[in-house]
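Query protein
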Amino acid sequence: MIITSVEFEPCVMPLEDKSWTFALGTASTSRGYVVRLTSDSGHVGYGYSNSSPHMGSTFESLPAELERFKPHVLGKDPFAIEAILMALNRSLTGASQAKAGIDCALHDLCARSLGIPNLKFFGEVGYGGGSGCAAVFHAAMAVALRRAGPAVVASGGTVILSLENGISQLSFVSADSILSPRVYHAINGTDLPVGATQLIPLADKYVLPGTISSYWVICSDPDNPGVQLDAATFLPIKGLKENFFSPPPTVVPGTFQGNDLGVLLGVANGKLYAGSTYTWNLSPTYGMFGLPATGDYYLHRQAAFNATFPYMLGYDSMRQSVIGFTNFGNAAYIGTTYQVTDTTAFNPKRVGLKLLDFEQINDQNVYAFGRAANDSIYEVKFGAAFIGVIQLSPAYKRPFPHPELITPQTLWGSSPGEVFYFSSGSSIYRYNPLNQDLQPLATDFGGKAVTMLRMTNQGNTIIAGVDGSVFFLDVSTGRNGNITRRIDDIPGSPVDVTVRTQ
């Protein structure tokens, strides 16, 4: 369905209460413009742009604003609401009333094309007139259409990313355990980028209600390395390359994560990137990548993004050394110019390992596991602090017990209590660095190789995946991997998961 016509006409509506008053005065009429969108299917959607001089749009300026937006709406798919609104934002700053009229008309057109007379959803939300947020409208339409099954709503559930014969798949399990497999393809009629590796939820915790607004699917294809999806509808917002102000020709993703401001942080092409937060959180440029932290280094795929102190840590794979970055608004590379309290245990500036895993726990101690030139596997621990400068305190570098368990497919996870879990074939092991105790969990995966290992619930739960299934394992005190929940019929092998509670 394509939008073939964009029209608007003045509309002056007398208010029933002639003495209606708000903070800036009294109004007896509502003056604005009715927006009418027509599609090639013959459906029509309506919206209303109210003139609000105190918000920047007058009755006289609205026609020019709406006219300016026409080229960004004509010929577009009305279901691509986020993309259209982003185009409007790029075209003109402000003009929120004109944008709201188009926004409402888009939702109305979509709802009418689906034959929905009134979307009774999330507390009697009507389908037109701007009576609810876009996320709610999207979710309601997805449910009503059953494009993604009745489970695709904004209220919560489990999102599972998997690889099925090389194809990246997204599945959704509702809170009442209804599985909607291959939901991205069902909604969008196309596949995700190939080689999915991560599913990253983004939520700005400082903007109420602090719920997940979008997901990033990170993939291994350098030419198409990922896509951002609306959390309520799984419709695409933009590709990972589009998240760069100046996109590199190819993007080789390392590991990314979301921060408390709802932007991506991570490693790409061996460099450290952090999404911009120097604008309004609903701006189309919010969270985009500028230049990486400049310096002569090539990072291991993981970095430690400290959430408490103004520094970050990484591992230079070329020099096999720990490197630092200060973070006073922007990440700045300082290399190995940090302080080291003592090099008796080892020198973090010359670690000499090819890393397998690199993690900072509780914004304090850092652990690394790596392979030496003689193929031995070592475990490294050092403390990290910020005392006006970055200060590292090496604790030990020692051989890892049972290195035969570590394979190229081994996955790692850790708890806030500094206990590690790792996969080896069809088993998961618990490793406590405090006493070097290493024990297998009791979970029986039926001989299938573990393809996903994610820690959640403050380190008390592991969400593990094997071909076709996802398991929730209790690893709290006194528990040894007891299965508390199981989800079957997942297409392919799970690689990542997010549990959304609201």
